[in-house]
Design goal:
Blueprint (H helix, E strand, L loop, with lengths): L5 H5 L14 E5 L15 H6 L1 H7 L3 E4 L27 H13 L3 E6 L9 H8 L5 H4 L3 E2 L22 E5 L5 E6 L14 H16 L4 E4 L16 H7 L19 H12 L7 E4 L18 E3 L3 H4 L4 H18 L4 E3 L8 H4 L4 H7 L4 H4 L15 H16 L4 E5 L21 H4 L44 H4 L6 H15 L6 E2 L7 E5 L4 E6 L11 E5 L12 E6 L1
Parallel strand pairs: 1-2, 1-11, 2-3, 3-7, 7-8, 8-9, 10-11
Antiparallel strand pairs: 4-6, 5-6, 12-13, 13-14, 14-16, 15-16
Helix pairs in contact: 7-9, 15-18
The structure holds alpha-D-glucopyranose.
Length: about 575
């Protein structure tokens, strides 16, 4: 198991430390919903630059930017028109450089989101493919197949896309006749690349160098487990695939035609060589929804180096589930040479302050939508607001986050969670929804817009200080009480809790080991780090005695010197 990083013990400049990522706090920014500098209702790059002082006082180590590339926003920017540019709606490359510089001056690293499985249908290569004949080199960059049926009128397989509806779309050939079909695991505006094509491989290496040269410190790899495919011969049916999925975790033998095939790692070995051309080496974290036993491959030092685990995110607020997940992931991370990752919220899931306030069964029932991605129950659906116990949800979320910040490994935060922000549910009218998951699943799922509503910076005023204009997704009136302005300097606010915890986390960070300290109460989790830093969480409802030591921070107030329910405290000594 790796030990304390040099920089943590000796104070070497963290920016130059090749291990900076191992125990970093990474803050995800969804650029179009963070801060709007020009009042057009859409967050932008200059908006982020203006908030660097806020990010600095938050105490994070790195920012991960969700896609900021030119895009028609068919999938919130995960439909990329041009990988080496900035969306003109968000700014320019010069704005990007200025932002990177401002972040670096503040001691904050920058991680860019790379979307290699698919481009958008407006990418110049896809337009060329549509204009070129069947069998042409331009078509070979994507996945085109003849249809089944007498006149090719049926899709090459009956597979569903992740967002619902078929995974194949028929095109009109340049001569105006109905033609071939192309594959899209996600929306039809997101055609899948053919990763057997050398030009595709070379172009992504170029993209990685382009951003690394501009000062990007690392990359988050979107659906890292989908790139390579085996579509030879007769394709299996949906039913064949479902029958082979072991439990709910997808294929464990790498034989699925498009998820988690072994060959995908050859790509990441090439990428690693590029990352290592830089000093310090560029880092990467895989978004890979794969069987837990296969996750370590994505985190190998010869590959991407780190992989998300979404296990805590999918767990109930439950001591034994948390303990099992933490133990397992630390062992796995140590075995692969990576450090573990922890995450409760991101741009794809219901915010954890809301999730933890939903009746447990409801979450499971609503979470069907990503089932195709890794056979997982997924939490894309916004909870109906009226079912949420807001107070309990927030209390548990604060306890869970404080526990996470004490764990060895990288903590990934999602913008707004430091405000205890709740998911926006049915307040978003159907007419204003944007998520393709909503449109492709009408009536079944309300999609992911509820966690993507622009942040409230001020308690009142136009779009709660998001910008001088409106907000591209409507902000409900109750956003006011979560505003940064309301919480800044306010004792007990979630923002101040995050600031305190993140500052302490940086100061206290030590080796990557964790020791469980036995507790007679099964609803209590207590652990210590090698330097005596301890975290204790009461998952129950009744107050419990605290262990010996000085409490340095707690997620809710203590009760007569005891640790109340749904509360975490850190102790020292
Ligand atoms: C990832 C992203 C999600 C996106 C999908 C397709 O799962 O996190 O937001 O819709 O990939 O790119």
């Amino acid at each position: 198991m790796s030990t304390t990083t040099e920089a943590q013990t000796t104070g070497i400049d963290r920016m130059a430390d090749p291990n900076w990522w191992r125990q970093a706090s990474v803050y995800q920014i969804y650029p179009r919903s963070f801060a709007d500098s020009n009042g057009d209702g859409l967050g932008d790059i200059q908006g982020i630059t203006a908030k660097v002082p806020y990010l600095k006082t938050l105490g994070i180590d790195a920012v991960w930017l969700s896609p900021f590339y030119p895009s028609a926003l068919a999938d919130g920017g995960y439909d990329v028109d041009d990988y080496r540019n900035v969306d003109p709606k968000l700014g320019t490359l010069a704005d990007f450089d200025e932002m990177a510089e401002a972040l670096h001056r503040a001691g904050i690293k920058l991680i860019a989101d790379i979307v290699p499985n698919h481009s958008s249908d407006r990418h110049e290569w896809f337009k060329e493919a549509l204009a070129s004949p069947k069998g042409s080199p331009a078509r070979d960059r994507y996945i085109f197949r003849d249809g089944l049926g007498e006149n090719g009128e049926l899709p090459p397989s009956d597979w569903d896309s992740v967002f619902g509806g078929p995974a194949w779309e028929r095109i009109t050939e340049p001569d105006g006749t109905p033609g071939q079909w192309y594959m899209h695991i996600f929306a039809k505006e997101q055609p899948d690349f053919n990763w057997d094509n050398q030009e595709v491989r070379d172009d992504f290496l170029k993209t990685l160098r382009f951003w690394s040269d501009r000062g990007v410190d690392g990359f988050r790899i979107d659906v890292a487990h989908a790139l390579t495919k085996n579509l030879e011969g007769t394709l299996p049916t949906k039913a064949d695939l479902e029958a082979k999925a072991l439990g709910t975790d997808g294929f464990v033998d790498g034989s699925h035609p498009y998820w988690d095939r072994d060959e995908v790692h050859e790509i990441y070995v090439e990428w690693r060589k590029v990352f290592n051309e830089y000093t310090p080496p560029r880092t990467a974290v895989a978004e890979a929804w794969v069987h837990a036993d296969r996750r370590a491959r994505y985190a190998s030092p010869e590959g991407l180096g780190q992989a998300f685990n979404f296990d805590l995110l999918q767990a109930d607020f439950d001591a034994s589930q948390f303990r099992k997940i933490i133990t397992k992931n630390l062992v796995e991370a140590a075995a692969s040479g990576a450090s573990s990752t922890w995450v409760f919220s991101n741009h794809d899931v219901v915010r954890h302050a809301t999730r933890y306030g939903l009746p447990a069964t409801e979450v499971a029932v609503e979470g069907e939508i990503m089932a195709g991605q890794a056979g997982k129950k997924w939490l894309l659906a916004g909870g109906r607001k009226e079912d949420v116990d807001v107070e309990l949800g927030l209390r548990r979320a604060r306890a869970a986050s404080l526990l996470m910040f004490a764990l060895p490994g990288s903590a990934y935060l999602y913008q707004g969670e430091e405000l205890g922000l709740q998911e926006v549910g049915s307040e978003i009218p159907d007419s204003e929804r944007q998520d393709p998951a909503f449109f492709r699943n009408k009536g079944v799922d309300i999609g992911r817009d509820g966690c993507r509503v622009p942040l409230p910076w001020t308690a009142d005023g136009t779009s709660f200080g998001f910008g001088d204009g409106g907000s591209h997704l409507p902000q409900p009136a109750w956003f006011s009480r979560y505003a940064v302005q309301e919480q800044d300097g306010a004792e007990g606010s979630t923002l101040e809790l995050y600031r305190t915890a993140l500052r302490l986390r940086t100061d206290l960070q030590s080796g990557e080991e964790l020791e469980w300290i036995p507790n007679s109460n099964p609803e209590v989790l207590h652990f210590a780090r090698p330097n005596g830093w301890q975290s204790v969480t009461n998952f129950g409802t009744e107050p419990v005695d605290l262990p010996e030591g000085t409490v340095v921070v707690s997620s809710s107030g203590l009760q007569d010197g005891k640790l109340p329910g749904a509360t975490t405290a850190w102790l020292f000594g």
